[in-house]
Automatic annotation (TrEMBL):
GO molecular function: L-seryl-tRNA(Sec) selenium transferase activity
Pfam family, one: Se-cys_synth_N
Family annotation (Gene3D superfamilies): 3.90.1150.180, Type I PLP-dependent aspartate aminotransferase-like (Major domain) (3.40.640.10)
Catalytic activity, EC: 2.9.1.1
A Gene Ontology BP annotation from the UniProt entry: selenocysteine incorporation
Record's protein name: L-seryl-tRNA(Sec) selenium transferase
Enzyme class: transferase
The organism of origin for this protein: Brachybacterium faecium (strain ATCC 43885 / DSM 4810 / JCM 11609 / LMG 19847 / NBRC 14762 / NCIMB 9860 / 6-10)
Length: 440
């Protein structure tokens, strides 16, 4: 046996040829596999592991490791459209559609005729079926892209008329006024923070008006001495002036949602006379990230012709998932929104029976800049706050809320069929926290 233990470290070519290591090529690139092999050899060279343990170290580093780093999360926060957790979870129908579209697919091809076809025709048709008030529809990458495209194509370097009560920041420093002016359009602010009148708009309408924009103040409310001008009131003056009226709804509701009476719906805005409506695909619509534009055929055509439309076009996966969301069963976002508090209480109490902890009243939220200030009555299981960290780093990862010195698990956004996995995750987290097995 050699005096230098490092000489016993298996050679790279031997390790790469080992069946377990070679099998990893099914899911990981050669570059990644070589990196893992080299890492284990390095550790052995530094004396951190024995030379004999190198193969085992590589096996465990490769073990079940997916090529991507995004991990599935059980959202136990009660926040339905959780931006940090990827907003809307897709319905099973949308997930299946993603799988089907992942390879070659007829996204821009007519299989019957054997010729090129309109891109995303299926998703467009599904939108028009779900919102018959719209003459045409266009799908881009996200709501922000839809707004930038609309104001750029309709206003160019002319003015976008917008109420001072709607100069909003959506999140993480994303300010709509800055987005609008970033492509050259000029902002013509009218009214005041709390009150804007029809006369403020009509006084601003003129030859340099590109469009009038109404923005739903999704994530905050102005209350008290306030007034705003409804789309229905603006429609007449805009039509007379020959200026398009654009309504940015944010949320993506196509039809009114009884649980959220203050949330505007696309169908109503179009009926009220908006020429163009903008919405996100992954908020209350419950689909993939997308920017949805619905409205008059002539306006949609102007947008689709603009060079920016190509830079913002939705990919095949988005189109597939959006169409399936629209044509499939109620998506998880709306299911979570409409959840019966008694059913939630029953599930939470059952979990408390099995795990211990206290059943407490807990309000869910719409989140994602929708349904501001609308509480969703519900329940949570209150556990030791120290569990939050091992829950987050466990498998499955569970994200809970820590408040009032409790780790709160809200089941609203956890699919009922995952309750057993959630229970197991809590047990594992307790063991990691306290291997001696004390109940927390
Ligand atoms: C969320 C939101 C946007 C941005 O949409 P994204 O899909 O997040 O890009 C724009 N306007 C309003 C009113 C919104 O609520």
């Amino acid at each position: 046996m050699s005096a230098d233990p490092r000489r016993r470290i298996p050679r790279t070519d031997h390790l790469l040829a080992h069946p377990d290591v070679a099998a990893a090529a099914q899911v990981l690139s050669e570059h990644v596999v070589r990196g893992i092999v080299r890492g284990a050899q390095e550790r052995a060279r530094r004396g951190e592991i024995a030379a004999e343990a190198v193969l085992e170290e590589i096996r465990s580093a490769l073990g079940g490791r997916p090529a991507g780093s995004l991990r599935p999360v059980l959202n136990a926060t009660g926040v339905i459209v959780h931006t940090n957790l990827g907003r809307a979870p897709l319905s099973p129908a949308a997930r299946a559609a993603l799988q089907d579209a992942a390879g070659y697919t007829d996204v821009e091809f007519d299989l019957a005729a054997g010729v090129r076809s309109r891109r995303g025709a299926g998703a467009r048709a599904a939108l028009l079926a779900a919102c018959p008030e719209a003459e045409d529809a266009l799908i881009v990458n996200n709501g922000a892209a839809a707004l930038a495209l609309a104001t750029t194509a309709l206003a160019g370097t002319d003015e976008v008329i917008l109420s001072r009560g709607e100069l909003i920041e959506i999140g993480a420093g994303f300010r709509l006024p800055e987005l609008i002016t970033s492509t050259g359009a000029r902002l013509r602010e009218v009214g005041t923070t709390n009150r804007t009148h029809l006369a403020d708009y009509t006084a601003a309408l003129g030859p340099s008006t590109g469009c009038v924009l109404r923005v739903h103040t999704s994530n905050y409310r102005v209350i008290g001495f306030t007034s705003e001008v409804a789309v229905a009131e603006l429609a007449g003056p805009c039509r007379e002036a020959g200026v398009p009226l654009v309504a940015d709804l944010g949320s993506g509701l196509l039809e009114p949602e009884p649980r959220l009476p203050a949330e505007p719906a696309a169908a109503a805005a179009l009926r009220d006379g908006a020429d163009l409506v903008i919405a996100s695909g992954d908020k209350l619509l419950g689909g993939p990230q997308a920017g949805i534009l619905l409205g008059r055929a002539e306006i949609i055509a102007r947008l689709a012709r603009h060079p920016l439309a190509r830079a913002m076009r939705a990919d095949k996966l988005t189109l597939a998932a959006l169409e399936a969301t629209l044509r499939g069963p109620v998506p998880p976002v709306l299911e979570a929104l409409r959840l019966d508090p008694d059913a939630l209480r029953e599930r939470t109490a059952a979990l408390a029976d099995r795990l211990g902890g206290r059943l407490v009243a807990h309000e869910g939220r719409v989140g994602g800049g929708g349904g501001a200030e609308v509480p969703l009555p519900g329940w949570a299981l209150a556990l030791d706050p120290a569990l939050a960290a091992p829950l987050r780093t466990g498998d499955p990862a569970v994200v809970a809320t820590v408040r009032d010195d409790c780790c709160l698990l809200d089941l609203r956004c956890v699919p009922a069929e995952e309750d057993a996995r959630l229970e197991a995750a809590v047990r594992t987290a307790r063991t990691r926290l306290d291997p001696a097995g004390a109940q927390r």
